Structure formats: structure tokens, C-alpha cells
Amino acid sequence: MACEAWRDKLDAFVDGELSPNAQQEFDAHLRGCASCAKDIASRMQLKTAVKRAAALRYAPSVEFRRKIEKEALPRKRNPRAVLIWAPAFAAAAVLLLVVVWMARRPAVTPEMAMLGEVVDMHVTALASANPVDVVSTDQHTVKPWFEGKLPFAVNLPDLTNSPFTLLGGRVAYLDQTPGAGLLFQYRKHQLSVFIFQERAEWAKMSAKETPQRHASFWVETWSASGLRYFVVGDTSDANVEQLANLMKGAAGAE
Ligand SMILES: [Zn+2]
Fold first, then answer.
1. What pLDDT digit, counting tens, does each position of 104-139 carry?
2. Ligand 1 center–CA 32 separation, angstroms
3. Could you give the CA distance from residue 92 to residue 35 in angstroms, rounded to a whole number?
4. Which of the listed residues 46, 161, 187, 227 has the most CB atoms within 10 Å of its CB?
């Protein structure tokens, strides 16, 4: 497909809304098209900025909502008092509508928000001209590269006899906290592995260690020895699980 045809699909790609086949074709196109890659990178920056702003958005507590509802409900008053208070009631009613609207929006769970961040980091890596800072297929080169850059050791699996190839690594940031970003190749696909120090809010999440669908990607996440792992790919859940199992084996071997 020509570049012009892809330009209409930039937003769908950024939101992970392309079909798996289109996603794969776009991945391949991005590797050869600096112009599309640059546009994706700036869209991802904008998306991150909007999400940061949204996270700071005011969310009313249940108590506050009840208080507003109580104050907005008209009480029995004499007619003259009602007239005097009418503008205040109207203002309170508008505020109540806003509060109810905010409370009824579909809830984004912390888990969905976090998986969204991880998928965004993967898409950003795919669109980046330099997705890895240490380019190597050798685990013995990539592991020491992270030493001194991260507060933990990065243990990489032996990929001999596996369908995956290591492409390299870089320092990835999630909320300004550094972690390991690793890129793997599987046929024409690229998969990301992210490793961060475990956080209290992540530890509370459901512990189902199977790949979950997020947009057009599969994400598997688990926690081991104080570290939080994420594997992201657009291939298949089996594929993502296979790489997850290799990472688990590498972490357990040391
Ligand atoms: Zn292009």
C-alpha cells in the first residue's frame, strides 16, 4: 500500500484500532517511511500529554455528589423564597448534571490505564527511528548495557531454538521511572518486553497470568522478585505467552 493510503490510518494505528493484518503491514511500512514514523511519534507525544492532563482532572467523591444532590433538591418553601432561590437552584441543577455525567462515564480501571500506557510505549518504539539504544542480538551484550542505568539487573533468555530474535534494548520511562525496554523479532513482527520495579498499585491488580487483549495488541503482565514484567505484541496470544514464558525462565535461572 502506498504512503498516502496509510496517512488516513495514522490515528487508527496510534489508537491500536487497526486489524491485526493492517497493523502488521503498517509496522512494516513504518520501518521504511520516516515521514509516517515522525507523524506517529508526534501523535504519541500528544496522546501522552492529553492523558497526563486527564489524569489530573477533577473527580468528585461520592460524598460530594450526595451533598450536591441534597442541596439541589427543592425543599418546601413559600413561593417568594422559591423565586429568590431559583437562580441558585438552576446553578446547582447544572452542577448536578455535570457531576452525574462524570460519574456515569465508562470507568477506566487502573489496570486498563496501565495496559494502555504499555501499548503506547510499544507503538512509540515501533514508530521510532531508533527503537533501541543498544543494538544487539546477543543477550550477553544487552544485559551489561543496562548495568548502572537501572536499579535492577535485566536477565535475558537464551533464544536458541526459539522463534524469537533479540533486536536490542533501551531505557524506557513510565511516569518518569526508568525501566528496561526490550525489542524482539518474531518473523515480520516486533514484540516489546518492559520491566519496571513493582509498584504497590500494580501489585493489587488481578493476578491472571494470561495475555489480555488491549486494542489490537496482546499484553501479558506478571510480577516476580519485586519486578513487574510486560510483554506486548500484535501476533497472537500464544506467541506473547511463549515470550513471557521465556522471560520467566530467564528470571528464575539467576
Ligand atoms: Zn508513509
1. 666 677 777 888 889 999 998 988 878 889 999 888
2. 8
3. 50
4. 227
